[in-house]
C-alpha cells in the first residue's frame, strides 16, 4: 500500500458509534410499560433560571417494575419537576408525596405498543441513514484520493472494503438493537 493516503478510519468509526449512541438514547426515551430511570433523561426542568436535566435536581429510582420515583432535593423545585414531567409527552401522571414524585407506569394497550414499535423503527432508520452518510463521506475521500493519483486501484479496493465492513457491522448493530427494543415493547 502507498503511504501517501491513509483513510482516517478512527474518525469514521467514531461517527458511526455516535449514531449508535444517539439511537440508544432515543430508544431509552420510548416507554415500554416498564419503569426505567432512563425514560426521564430527556425531561428538562426549569431550575434556578436554567433548563436542567431531571437527574440533576433529584434522585430517580425504580422501586418496582411499574413505578418510577423522583426524590427532589430542593422542596422549592417539586412543583417545577412535576410540571416538567406532566408536559414532557411521556403520558405519565405524576403523584406527589412530599418531596417524592411517584410516576405509576400504566399498562400499554396493543395499539400503543404497535405505534411504539413503528417509532422505534423510525429511530433505527434515522441511525442507518446517519451511518450510510458517514460511509458516503469515507467513499468520497477514497475516490478523491484515487482521482488525485494518491492511491492505486488496489489501495482503493482495500479502503472501500474496510469502510463497507465497518458500515455493515454498525448497520447490523442497529438492526439487533431495534429487534431487542421491539421485543421489549411488545412484551406484555
From TrEMBL:
GO molecular function: ribosomal large subunit binding
Coiled-coil segments: none
Broad class of the protein's primary localization: cytoplasm
Domain Ribosome recycling factor: start-end pairs: 24-186
Alphabetically ordered keywords of this record: Cytoplasm, Protein biosynthesis
Matches recorded under Gene3D superfamilies: 3.30.1360.40, Ribosome-recycling factor
Subcellular location: Cytoplasm
Family, similarity comment: Belongs to the RRF family.
NCBIfam families reported for this sequence: frr
Stated name of the protein: Ribosome-recycling factor
Organism for this UniProt entry: Sedimentitalea nanhaiensis
Amino acid at each position: 500500500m502507498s503511504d501517501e493516503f491513509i483513510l482516517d478510519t478512527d474518525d469514521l468509526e467514531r461517527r458511526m458509534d455516535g449514531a449508535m449512541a444517539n439511537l440508544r438514547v432515543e430508544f431509552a426515551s420510548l416507554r415500554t410499560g416498564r419503569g426505567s430511570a432512563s425514560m426521564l433523561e430527556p425531561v428538562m426542568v426549569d431550575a434556578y433560571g436554567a433548563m436542567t436535566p431531571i437527574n440533576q435536581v433529584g434522585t430517580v429510582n425504580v422501586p418496582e417494575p411499574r413505578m418510577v420515583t423522583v426524590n427532589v432535593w430542593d422542596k422549592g423545585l417539586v412543583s417545577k419537576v412535576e410540571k416538567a414531567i406532566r408536559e414532557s409527552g411521556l403520558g405519565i401522571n405524576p403523584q406527589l408525596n412530599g418531596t417524592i414524585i411517584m410516576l405509576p407506569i400504566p399498562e400499554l394497550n396493543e395499539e400503543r405498543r404497535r405505534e411504539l414499535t413503528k417509532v422505534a423503527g423510525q429511530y433505527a432508520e434515522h441511525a442507518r441513514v446517519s451511518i450510510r452518510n458517514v460511509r458516503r463521506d469515507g467513499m468520497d475521500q477514497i475516490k478523491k484520493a484515487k482521482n488525485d493519483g494518491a492511491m492505486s486501484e488496489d489501495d482503493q479496493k482495500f479502503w472501500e472494503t474496510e469502510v463497507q465492513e465497518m458500515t455493515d457491522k454498525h448497520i447490523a448493530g442497529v438492526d439487533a438493537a431495534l429487534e431487542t427494543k421491539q421485543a421489549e415493547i411488545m412484551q406484555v
